[in-house]
């Protein structure tokens, strides 16, 4: 190669590199907030390189590449829960009306819990466990580089123990979703998190089992979904919400629970598979609430004891036995009957209730599923249209709470579930306090104001009107904390 050819090659390489860089920047800028699911968010960023088809895992066992890629995108999640005041002397308002005064006693106690989370988009969306942030009045997120943010809770799903958070940041490292269906028993995996406040801890293990139901989730409507990936990667308190990743650096699960008599790791840990995680995250991103498609049947596993339990012969050695079909459900409309044994959905075997629940939990109301089942020993198929808990196929959109602001304090209108749980006609909760007078009064974030002076409070607008009316005076605000503890505070406006 002569000198002229060499310099020509250098010029061409520079031009091509510049065009690629400009294209990448434009794609990232144009896609920050327009996506309605995490496939779009993750596929339009150049942050992750392990997802490239050209990347090949080195021969033998090598966790270095995956660990280096994943750890910058794992965060520490700290939740603050207001727990009410310590016991103090008797106060007239407390004695007669149940309101507790902060005078002469310590301010309301602040309970704190710590867990982990995984960044799943460059613009700051984070997946964690619901139990990590449940009932929190404030959620703080600390990145690997020690930057700290106050996170917004976009949505939660107690039925799968998952939650979606958002921090105001961009150009973040994130972890792409992998396919948990393709994960094999015996495959090496890494668990990454913050056990015992030890940040960015990486442990290794193998997938020990899939579709595990260990009976730890509870839901009032009995809609909990348990189909965990079991692994022997060491997971301890503080790992909850952190990712379980494969050697490609992809999320195949979110670490959620351990089986232990001591509270520490005993060899068994469990993760929500990414097939469920991604669906729940997409629902929370788009609608603010999970869209659960239901078949509408009451089920149980076929096992050696089933005939004794139901008092009749079962012509199968495995599968999911239908004990009851709900009236008006998609299952009833598809022709499913009591006594049928479901053995497959959409071409995948479902020989256990957890496997069936996992397949159906990926769907939304209105989706159709092909169900393979046994009736009197004969294999049959049918197509069912899934419905929601209300018995129709409508999408449920979460109501976004209205916020108002007064002198550095932000208030949120109460949603229906909180009003029902606390038996309140209305009120406004304090979400952010950046005002010294309010801080000095002792009131904590999460406090729900129901009365200011003589003014009844039903929403945030009532708060603003009342505070303006009492401006320049000392006023008493009354209310209740999310745990039910009533209290009042004297505030100098």
Structure description:
The protein folds into three domains: 64-287, Thrombin, subunit H (Beta Barrel); 297-385, Roll (Pdz3 Domain); 403-492, PDZ domain (Pdz3 Domain). Residues 85-101 have low confidence and may be disordered. A seven-stranded antiparallel sheet has the order 5-4-1-2-3-7-6. Strands 20, 21, 22, 23, 24, 25 and 26 form a seven-stranded antiparallel sheet that branches. The relative contact order is 0.10. The protein has twelve helices and 26 strands. The protein is 22% helix and 31% strand. The protein is an alpha+beta fold and 493 residues long.
Percentage of helical residues?
10-25%
Low-confidence stretches: 85-101
Strand percentage lies at: 25-35%
How many β-strand runs?
A: 26
Radius of gyration: 27 Å
Give the distance, in angstroms, between the N- and C-terminal Cα atoms.
81 Å
Total of domains? 3
Mean pLDDT level: 84
CATH architecture of the largest domain: Beta Barrel
CATH fold description of the largest domain = Thrombin, subunit H
**Structural class designation:** alpha+beta
Shape descriptor? globular
Q: Please, how many helices? A: 12
- The CATH class label of the largest domain is Mainly Beta
Lateral arrangement of strands in the main beta sheet: 5-4-1-2-3-7-6
Largest pleated sheet? 7 strands, antiparallel
């Amino acid at each position: 190669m002569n000198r002229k050819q060499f310099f020509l090659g250098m010029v061409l390489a520079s031009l091509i590199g510049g065009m690629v860089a400009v294209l990448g920047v434009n794609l990232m800028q144009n896609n920050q907030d327009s996506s309605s699911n995490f496939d779009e968010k993750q596929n339009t960023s150049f942050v992750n390189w392990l997802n490239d088809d050209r990347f090949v895992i080195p021969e033998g066992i090598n966790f270095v590449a995956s660990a280096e890629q994943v750890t910058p995108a794992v965060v520490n999640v700290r939740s603050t829960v207001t727990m009410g005041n310590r016991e103090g002397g008797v106060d007239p308002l407390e004695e007669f009306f149940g309101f507790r005064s902060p005078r002469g006693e310590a301010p309301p106690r602040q309970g704190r819990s710590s867990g982990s989370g995984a960044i799943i988009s460059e613009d700051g969306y984070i997946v964690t466990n619901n139990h990590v942030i449940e009932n929190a009045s404030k959620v703080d997120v600390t990145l690997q580089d020690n930057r700290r943010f106050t996170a917004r809770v976009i949505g939660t799903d107690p039925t799968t123990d998952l939650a979606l958070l958002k921090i105001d940041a961009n150009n973040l490292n994130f972890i792409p979703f992998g396919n948990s269906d393709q994960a094999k028993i015996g495959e090496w995996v890494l668990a990454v998190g913050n056990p015992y406040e030890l940040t960015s801890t990486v442990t290794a293990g193998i997938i020990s089992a899939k579709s595990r139901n260990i009976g730890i989730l509870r839901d009032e409507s009995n809609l909990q979904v348990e189909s965990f990936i079991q692994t022997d990667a060491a997971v301890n308190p503080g790992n909850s919400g952190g990712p379980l990743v494969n050697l490609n650096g992809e999320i195949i699960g979110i670490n959620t629970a351990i089986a232990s008599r001591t509270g520490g790791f005993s060899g068994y840990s469990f993760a929500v598979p990414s097939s469920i995680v991604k669906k729940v995250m997409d629902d929370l991103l788009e609608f603010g609430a999970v869209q659960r498609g239901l078949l509408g049947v009451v089920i149980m596993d076929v096992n050696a004891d089933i005939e004794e339990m139901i008092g009749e012969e079962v012509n199968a050695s495995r599968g999911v036995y239908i004990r009851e079909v709900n009236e008006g459900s998609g299952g009833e409309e598809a022709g499913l009957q009591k006594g049928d044994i479901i053995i497959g959905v959409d071409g995948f075997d479902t020989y256990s209730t957890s496997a069936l629940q996992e397949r159906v939990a990926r769907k939304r109301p209105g989706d159709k599923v092909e169900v393979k089942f046994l009736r009197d020993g004969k294999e049959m198929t049918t197509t069912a249209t899934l419905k929601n808990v209300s018995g129709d196929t409508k999408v449920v959109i979460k109501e976004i709470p209205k916020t108002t602001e007064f002198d550095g304090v932000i208030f949120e209108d109460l949603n229906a579930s909180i009003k029902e749980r606390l038996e309140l006609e209305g009120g406004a909760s304090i979400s952010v306090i950046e005002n010294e007078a309010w801080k000095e009064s002792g009131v904590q974030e999460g406090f729900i104001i129901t009365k200011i002076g003589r003014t009844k409070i039903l929403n945030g607008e009532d708060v603003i009107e009342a505070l303006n009316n009492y401006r320049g005076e000392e006023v008493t605000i009354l209310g209740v904390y999310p745990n039910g503890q009533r209290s009042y505070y004297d505030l100098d406006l």
